Amino acid sequence: MKLFEYQAKETFRKFGIETPGSVLIQSPGELGPAGAETGYPLVLKSQLLMGGRGKKGLIRLVKDEAQAVKECGELFDSEYGVGKILVEQAVDIKSELYLSITVDPVEAKHMIIACADGGVEIETLAVESPEKIIREYVDPDRGLMPFQIKNIGFSLGLEGDLLKKFSAVLANLYKAFVSSDAELIEINPLFITGEGKIIAGDGKLSIDDNSDFRQPSYEKTRDYYDSDAEYEASLEGIPYLQFDGDISLMCAGAGLTTTVYDLINYEGGTVANYLEFGGPNYKKAVRAMELCLKNDSKVILVVTFGTIARADVMAEGIVDAISRLKPDRPIVTCIRGTNEEEASRILKDAGLVPLYDTEEAVRKAVAIAKGEKS
Length: 374
Prior knowledge:
- The chain is an alpha+beta fold.
- 36% of the residues lie in helices and 24% in strands.
- Strand 14 (299-306), helix 10 (311-325) and strand 15 form a beta-alpha-beta unit.
- The relative contact order is 0.09.
- One of its GO terms (cellular component) is succinate-CoA ligase complex.
- GO terms for molecular function: ATP binding; metal ion binding; succinate-CoA ligase (ADP-forming) activity.
């Protein structure tokens, strides 16, 4: 689960990492008191779970109250659906660093990434100037060692008092990373101010979804999702991704779902949503179809291959879903696996045409979506 910048900074402060003074507002009417608290100049930072906010004009430096009122109104009225703005003190910036911690699945270790060029996209830097990126691998069992912190600080060209302050920031950031069950924690940029302070200018924090039960302070709300269907699927525990195509995809098994997604694209079709109701969710066909029907798709394509998740049980679920929900669009089915003969009988009795070849099912769904004869 990705957190908003203001939540990442709350975590930073909890672990002793300094951030600019700030106030979170949810309407233009709250700007006055917030500006009075932070003082001018200040920065208006739209709270959205997307990269490149600065390039999209969603972060704005303002010099006085009049400019702040104008810019704040524009941000709340923007096409991006801004619901919260972090009103933040402007900082006297001398230089910027990049600092993050993530997990390297190949090495099975935590990986610290640092760079003396902060404020840029690390992915771009990795391509254009890879020699500038510093990497340090940390054994999770041993934890971050003092010599590793110094190695990174020296590599960044820091010394004296700045090195001590940076070392404290990195040590605390690692504690926050481990304590939060994070997949990624990032400060970009990490400001070095004219007064010699080190301050987190921006923040990212992504929590491992499997640790939800250990992170009760990070409650899932609608704000984290692009659509109602995506939010409801998350609460249900059903893997779901939102797109804007014509074919609602309802499959069992992540690998199969991804393969069918690719086949649809190869056939010239487009996907409205990716929904995977296999594994522990294979008896949730009614809920799965209900989520698919929230999309403005032209057809629902159901493809499953059940071994432990029996084909006949899935077929019963599909027929039950159709009976209850009465979908307003065609349903194409290709349900294979254990007890598939019974599954075929169930589908035929319900007036559906069971298919046995995945590519044939995909071609039929694409043809329906395009308004062609299938």
